[in-house]
Each structure stands twice: as C-alpha cells, then as structure tokens.
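Changelog-adjacent note: as of this version, every example in the card shows the full chain rather than a window. The one below runs 74 residues end to end.
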Amino acid sequence: MAEWIFLFIICIPLFLILIWQVFNPEDAMLWGKRWMYKEQPEVSDEAIKYTKIVSILGIVVLTLIFVVSFIKLI
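Full-length structure tokens:
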C-alpha cells in the first residue's frame, strides 16, 4: 500500500509537467535557460513537434505504469 501512495505522489507532478509540455512546448524547452539569452530565442518547428511527441509518449507510458501497478495491487 505504501508503494501505491508513493507512486501516486510521484506521478501527479510528472503528469502535470508533461501536460504543460504538450500545451506550452516553447516555454517548457526554455524553462531554466532563459537567463542565457538577451532576447527571446526562436525555437524551430521540429523541436516543438519533438517536444510534443515525447510528452505524449511520456503520458502514455506513465499511465501504463500507473494502471499496471494498480492492477498488480488488486
């Protein structure tokens, strides 16, 4: 039961970060790196597409891990 609670506590922030990356990929890619640039850097369309795809895959994988661990608990 403790593993389930720990997994739930870890998964919620990860879900939120991945959802944020899907909706705001430019902000997510520059998070923590904006201070290095004097002006707003331009992010390529390929990089935005890659970030969205990886975030969606991360959501799917995290959901599968969550469901499998829940089924294993029962």
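Structural remarks: The mean pLDDT is 85.
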